[in-house]
Amino acid sequence: MTGGPSRYVVTHRLCGYQRSPSATPRPYSSRSERSANIAPNPVLLASIPPSTREDDPPMHLIEVERKRELPDPCSLRQRLAELGYREAGDRAEVDTYYSRPDVDYMKTVECLRIRQRDGFAEITYKPPSNASTHGETDVIAKRETNVTLSSPDQAATANQLLAAIGMVELVRVEKARTLYQHPEHDDIIVSIDTVTHAGTFVETEVTAADTDAATVHLEDVETELGIADHPVVGRPYRDLVMAAAR
């Protein structure tokens, strides 16, 4: 397996990078995979100040996202196409969520998850929610730590590992997810999710170093997409599926 925090791509360093022409275009599974498929441009890299060179500690990016109910997915898909967004992936995902035996992740709003789909598997941890990570308007800003497994078959082994060290399985969430990205706005991801036993939702995600600026940008994107009036969903899919099972 390969490890590393997926939100550690340096914003200004991306200005000095270009995509490798030998890479085969395909949907990115995460921002860490996207950054791994970018090769340095020596001309541009030479113009980057010494403090931003490759041997310096990376700037920590924050994921800012908000989820809303989506009663009419067709209308949103049409609006995305009108704005120039392109479908970047259509996949079925199975997420298995865990908690510690001595700490209830439902109460702390922490996330320990193993995600699996065709050709990909990873372990994700998100820290507890508090006033700084979960705003009054249900904008979530958390730093993720992701460990990408070397093959999807290792998801079963990862589940066995977490069980062996005493972690408690909470629920399995099955969803069909379609990702949309704009060719000129790499920091925005729009996802349309159909979650078994929970419904259909749209999740808008913006990644930036400045949480406040990213939040304003997120609101602008939602307004442009015509979803700003849709009911906000503050609970994660994990909680929605667990509530539906009761």
Describe the structure concisely.
The protein has 246 residues and is α+β, with helices and mostly antiparallel strands. It has helices at 11-14, 31-36, 42-46, 73-82, 105-108, 154-164, 211-225, 237-245, and strands at 2-4, 17-19, 38-40, 62-69, 86-99, 111-117, 120-126, 140-142, 145-148, 168-182, 185-195, 199-208, 232-233.
Task: Indicate the topology.
Blueprint: E1 2-4, H1 11-14, E2 17-19, H2 31-36, E3 38-40, H3 42-46, E4 62-69, H4 73-82, E5 86-99, H5 105-108, E6 111-117, E7 120-126, E8 140-142, E9 145-148, H6 154-164, E10 168-182, E11 185-195, E12 199-208, H7 211-225, E13 232-233, H8 237-245
Antiparallel strand pairs: 1-9, 2-3, 4-8, 4-12, 4-13, 5-6, 5-10, 6-7, 7-9, 10-11, 11-12
What structural class results from the helix and strand content? Answer: alpha+beta
- Name the shape in a single word: globular
Looking at the structure, the CATH topology of the largest domain is Hypothetical Protein Pfu-838710-001
Order of helices and strands: EHEHEHEHEHEEEEHEEEHEH
Low-confidence regions? 2-54
- By DSSP (H or I, 4+ residues per run), the number of helices equals 8
Helical coverage, percent range: 25-40%
The whole-angstrom Rg is 18 Å
Strand content: 35-45%
The CATH architecture designation of the largest domain is Beta Barrel
Count of extended strands: 13
Query: How many distinct domains?
Result: 2
CATH homologous superfamily title of the largest domain? Hypothetical Protein Pfu-838710-001
